[in-house]
């Protein structure tokens, strides 16, 4: 049975481990960085002493302790035919160095691992403080290996949805559910009425192509917003579909994206993989914008018939119908759903309760 955590916790000194690859700053590279930014600020606002370990170049307000950069690799090492990619080595060096330092540091009550790297799990037994890992993704080979070989007595897990918790549980990670949240004072309700919006990383698994095709079939047009980390996909698959009432609005900061979502009649969410949570859904609901999407991953947990219309995954024609249906839903109901189930305060309550349990 899924355990839901909602009880507030006690003030703690927390080491919050973030991504070593991407700086935590707007416009955020993805939902993980946005999540870390919001959680760190909200925990500090509640009196916790939070030290964020992350990539250099992060937002100055976080006062991030930058993870060490990879020193120059010797010519002898580079001649090794098994030499891994530089980015892999850089991440490995950053986390290894940071965790070795944490192993010598007795000042923290707990370590909250908010990264996707295997080393914080593998090295948890060497740390003086207990380690909580938030599972943001489905099982991946490196993380799965670390979970299976880890010291169960030193590992605690949270999952961003019941769907994700169920995926990890057979592997030995019995995760409490603490759903992601958004700041409903920043993501505010808008008037709607405009062309639908699709937002997120513009990569194949997020389904921008499917969203465009559905919107053209529905005759509504579409505005896309988000980073383009896969330039080949964006240039070859997405750009040829743009034009007329289908436009790319750029990679927006949260304020600009909230304004865009608030003017949309519908938010289109067309994942081609099983979304572990779907932060874009929470953002849309907070802006009072109903959602039309594929029923994959955690989306059915977040949406109710009053604020969204979900159809069979991959069915573009059905998604086109869903866009038209979602536009008739009550925007106030979408906003209420976000306030009750998708807020940053509810998420922070959940983590505080876990911290208290771990440090008891």
From TrEMBL:
Residues 29-185 form the Glycosyltransferase subfamily 4-like N-terminal domain. Pfam families: Glyco_transf_4, Glycos_transf_1. Keywords: Glycosyltransferase, Transferase. SUPFAM superfamilies: UDP-Glycosyltransferase/glycogen phosphorylase. InterPro entries: Glyco_trans_1, Glyco_trans_4-like_N, Glycosyltransferase_grp1. Residues 199-335 form the Glycosyl transferase family domain. The keyword Nucleotide-binding does not apply. This is Glycosyltransferase family 4 protein. The lineage of its organism: Bacteria, Bacillati, Actinomycetota, Actinomycetes, Pseudonocardiales.
């Amino acid at each position: 049975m899924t355990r839901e955590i909602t009880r507030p916790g006690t003030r703690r000194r927390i080491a919050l481990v973030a991504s070593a690859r991407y700086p935590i700053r707007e416009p955020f590279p993805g939902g993980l960085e946005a999540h870390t930014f919001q959680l760190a600020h909200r925990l500090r606002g509640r009196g916790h002493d939070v030290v964020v370990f992350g990539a250099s170049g992060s937002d100055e307000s976080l006062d991030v302790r930058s993870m060490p950069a990879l020193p120059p690799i010797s010519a002898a090492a580079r001649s090794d035919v098994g030499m891994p990619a530089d980015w892999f080595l850089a991440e490995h060096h950053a986390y290894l160095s940071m965790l070795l330092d944490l192993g010598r540091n007795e000042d923290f009550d707990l370590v909250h691992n908010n990264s996707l790297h295997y080393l914080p799990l593998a090295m948890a037994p060497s740390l003086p403080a207990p380690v909580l890992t938030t599972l943001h993704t489905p099982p991946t080979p490196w993380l799965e290996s670390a979970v299976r070989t880890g010291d169960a007595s030193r590992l605690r897990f949270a999952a961003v949805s019941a769907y994700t918790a169920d995926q990890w549980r057979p592997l030995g990670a019995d995760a409490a559910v603490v759903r992601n949240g958004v700041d409903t004072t920043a993501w505010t309700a808008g008037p709607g009425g405009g062309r639908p919006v699709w937002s997120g990383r513009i990569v194949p698994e997020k389904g921008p192509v499917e969203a465009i095709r559905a919107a053209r079939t529905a005759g509504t047009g579409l505005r896309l917003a988000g980073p383009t980390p896969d330039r080949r996909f964006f240039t070859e698959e997405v750009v040829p579909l743009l034009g007329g009432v289908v436009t790319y609005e750029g990679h927006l900061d949260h304020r600009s994206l909230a304004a865009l979502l608030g003017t949309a009649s519908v938010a289109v969410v067309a994942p081609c993989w099983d979304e572990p949570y779907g932060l874009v859904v929470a953002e849309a609901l907070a802006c009072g914008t109903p959602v039309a999407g594929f029923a994959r991953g955690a989306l059915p947990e977040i949406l109710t018939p009053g604020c969204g219309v979900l159809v069979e995954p991959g069915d573009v024609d059905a998604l086109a119908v869903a866009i038209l249906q979602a536009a008739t839903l009550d925007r106030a109901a979408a906003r209420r759903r976000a306030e009750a189930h998708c807020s940053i305060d509810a998420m922070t309550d959940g983590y505080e309760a876990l911290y208290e349990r771990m440090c008891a």
